[in-house]
């Protein structure tokens, strides 16, 4: 080759000029895909569904160790030995099987999965919000009790009734003094006016009305009442009938029960204590069905809700009313 040809083929030192531009372009593309990957989120639920469908389509085989391996019998010992053949265990046996009880991965989820409730239950913020709502409702119940006490102030000062609250429950306690004779379930005429005042107040206040009769622990066995159960029930019915007189209050709001001496206020060790236990209580039970959202109800009906109700000393049995289809 001549010197002239060598001069024509001589290349410049280093990489070609286009190589730098190409390398920059590749670097930018790589950065772009890295950014896309960093912005993406993996949908765990869809991944589980996909894994379950793949397992169902192709099957998943597990290698299970056999706890009691099968045993074989020596052919030589069986055919040629005069002795009795003994089974000999094989050193190690594996059985390849398919678990038919779990053909696919079970995924309990829905498209509208509630992010506020995970595997550990509702978060602290949700529970704090529901607790705050319940505390506000308790204050409303106390306000209603104050209004009742103001309307029945004369009867309270006379010692005929008492009013107190327990959570969302208002208790109007009627003492035996002045209301019933000893061993009797007939209301005294002068006490009917007191119950008429109570009726006028109850008609304006919402809630389920439960009338409970209570006695002391001294047994009774008369021609009319065979036990304190019958006496307490009869007294509760007498009060309920008086409250329902004139259809001022819808009778469907009422529930009547006799408790005998099962819920004493005092120890029954003295005449004064037994007098405290002989009473009729009118309980105004205010449910939460009309005051809470469906989400808040769901929280209270969960295990976390039981803790909230326990902290506020609320009884869950009257907080939610049964729907017609739930009654059996």
Helix content: 40-55%
Question: Which strand order do you get reading across the main beta sheet?
Answer: 7-8-11-9-10
End-to-end C-alpha gap: 109 Å
Weakly predicted, low-confidence segments: 92-96, 109-120, 320-328
In the CATH hierarchy, the architecture of the domain at 124-317 is 2-Layer Sandwich
Task: State the total count of DSSP E strands.
Answer: 11
Mean pLDDT: 75
Instruction: Write the CATH homologous superfamily of the domain at 124-317.
Output: OmpA-like domain
> Radius of gyration, rounded?
41 Å
Largest sheet: 5 strands, mixed
CATH class of the domain at 124-317: Alpha Beta
Number of helices, counting only DSSP H or I runs of 4 residues or more = 11
What percent of residues are in strands?
Answer: 15-25%
Computed structural class: alpha+beta
Helix-strand topology string = HHHEEHEEEEHHEEHEHEHEHH
Can you describe what's shown?
- By secondary structure, the chain is α+β, with helices and mostly antiparallel strands.
- The chain has a domain at 124-317: OmpA-like domain (60s Ribosomal Protein L30, Chain: A), CATH 3.30.1330.
- It is built from eleven helices and eleven strands.
- The longest helix is centred in the middle third of the chain and has 28 residues, at 124-151.
- The chain starts with a helix and ends in a 17-residue tail after the last helix.
């Amino acid at each position: 080759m001549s010197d002239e040809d060598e001069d024509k083929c001589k290349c410049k030192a280093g990489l070609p000029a286009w190589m730098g531009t190409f390398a920059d372009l590749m670097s930018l593309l790589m950065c772009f895909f890295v950014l896309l990957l960093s912005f993406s989120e993996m949908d765990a639920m869809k991944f589980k569904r996909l894994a379950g469908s793949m397992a169902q389509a192709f099957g998943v085989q597990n290698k299970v160790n056999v706890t009691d391996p099968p045993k074989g019998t020596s052919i030589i010992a069986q055919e040629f030995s005069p002795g009795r053949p003994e089974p000999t265990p094989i050193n190690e046996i594996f059985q390849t099987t398919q678990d038919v009880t779990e053909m696919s991965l079970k995924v309990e989820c829905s498209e509208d999965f509630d992010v506020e409730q995970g595997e550990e239950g509702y978060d602290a913020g949700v529970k704090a919000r529901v607790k705050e709502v319940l505390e506000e409702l308790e204050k409303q119940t106390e306000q209603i009790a104050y209004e009742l006490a103001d309307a029945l102030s004369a009867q309270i000062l006379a010692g005929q009734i008492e009013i107190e609250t327990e959570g969302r429950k208002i208790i109007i306690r009627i003492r035996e003094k002045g209301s019933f004779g000893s061993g009797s379930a007939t209301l005294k005429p002068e006490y009917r006016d007191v119950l008429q005042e109570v009726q006028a107040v109850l008609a304006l206040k919402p809630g389920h009305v439960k009338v409970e009769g209570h006695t002391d622990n001294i047994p009774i066995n008369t021609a009319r009442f065979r036990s304190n159960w019958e006496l307490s029930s009869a007294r509760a019915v007498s009060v309920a009938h008086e409250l329902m007189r004139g259809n001022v209050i819808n009778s469907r709001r009422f529930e009547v029960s006799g408790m005998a001496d099962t819920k004493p206020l005092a120890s029954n060790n003295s005449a004064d204590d037994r007098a405290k236990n002989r009473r009729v209580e009118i309980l105004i039970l205010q449910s939460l069905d009309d005051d809470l959202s469906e989400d808040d109800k769901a929280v209270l009906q969960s295990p976390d809700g039981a803790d909230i109700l326990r902290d506020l000393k609320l009884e869950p049995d009257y907080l939610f009313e049964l729907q017609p289809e739930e009654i059996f």
